[in-house]
């Protein structure tokens, strides 16, 4: 069993959070050496298990959760590393489907922080500039320690953003990767075109790894070309995930394909039943080169079908075999996706979703259009967004669906001011029924309303915390 190779003072949970918050001032540093050196200082806990890494603009958290659930169903002791949390930091690290304890979380943070201090002390002694160790660096290293001590077989790593410089990419035991799709997000860091962002995420495709390209990677030919070129240069044969329309009897292998990808393996999914009300099941079939999986079901909206199919293909490739169909069914239907089309209150209904860019908002609204509220009422939108997102794109999508909007802002330092958000909705033609300085005051004022809550992950998290 893995053990940290040096002694250190273990912080309590509150102390570990203080340690993390002290690193926020360093922001985002595009380099892997920091995490690589910290892991080396800890005697490489990331080598105690295999890793599966998932990148993408939208869908990567859900795909990560489904991947972890499916691998667990196949008998693997599985860890899951996601971000951000909805309510508690411990949600970022799960072992066997359960968030780690506050004590284990604090132990990991303590070990990672001490490793960072040792690395920087050695750099200073050598006349080198100390690393700016970010919160995400510390969290990622801590997760590797926690998972190694827990004796997991495999860890599913969700990229924080990008891929090339993401802290999760420092793990040396990544065997399989997937990219769910591409959209304009984090443009200040990743680039201001889809092709530039695709290039950053495609960097996780490396020699010796299996690769799955989600259906969102093929929405623009120029974007798909970036991924296929990276696969070719790495000597990797990707599995392509794509949807077969419900009324199309052909499989993707029968369809006419571009010469660049005609011979590549496929994972085709077909939605056979779309949910018509909250709590009704989504049903789909998935066909891969290894097996046909019929009548998979999830109590989720239709947009999750692509994520489920991507996870199925990723697990097959990682295991190198077909999945047990019955275990797969049970794993998919039981998999939780917190903050994704989640009903927090049945009456009056309060539905949250973590959509936070135009692409994910579009998918959310498409699924919402399939749902009929029991009382036939038109819900009110409660919205908050982060200033570094495509705010105008989000507002344009939402204002076209919701004539009445309440605006608030979250406690995130990146939150857009509520007055600015309200003004954008007014310009887009929506009626503003309330402006609230924070989430608790918004929920208190709107407690008797049917609510749809979306616009940012932090908003979904803060609302979920009020109902925890």
Question: Topology, pairings included?
Answer:
Layout lengths: L12 H9 L11 H9 L8 E6 L4 H14 L4 E4 L11 E3 L2 E2 L2 H24 L9 H15 L4 E5 L15 E8 L5 H4 L3 H9 L7 E7 L4 H14 L4 E5 L22 E8 L8 E7 L3 E7 L5 H16 L5 H10 L7 E4 L4 E3 L5 H11 L11 E4 L7 H11 L2 E4 L10 H10 L3 E5 L3 H7 L5 E4 L2 H10 L2
Parallel strand pairs: 1-5, 1-6, 2-5, 6-7, 7-8, 8-9, 13-17, 14-15, 14-17, 15-16
Antiparallel strand pairs: 2-3, 3-4, 9-10, 10-11, 12-13
What labels would you give this structure?
468 residues, alpha/beta, 11-stranded mixed β-sheet, 17 strands, 6-stranded mixed β-sheet
Task: Write structural notes for this entry.
The protein is of the alpha/beta class and 468 residues long. The protein is built from 15 helices and 17 strands. It has helices spanning 13-21, 33-41, 60-73, 102-125, 135-149, 187-190, 194-202, 221-234, 304-319, 325-334, 358-368, 391-401, 418-427, 439-445, 457-466; strands at 50-55, 78-81, 93-95, 98-99, 154-158, 174-181, 210-216, 239-243, 266-273, 282-288, 292-298, 342-345, 350-352, 380-383, 404-407, 431-435, 451-454. The strands form 2 sheets. It has an 11-stranded mixed β-sheet, with helices on both faces. The chain has a 6-stranded mixed β-sheet with strand order 12-13-17-14-15-16, with helices on both faces. α3 crosses α9 (304-319), α7 runs parallel beside α8 and α11 packs parallel to α12. It starts with 12 loop residues before the first helix and ends with a helix. Mean pLDDT is 91; it is low at 186-191 and 249-259.
> How far from one another are the termini?
35 Å
Going across the major beta sheet, what is the strand order?
4-3-2-5-1-6-7-8-9-10-11
Beta-strand fraction estimate? 15-25%
Structural class: alpha/beta
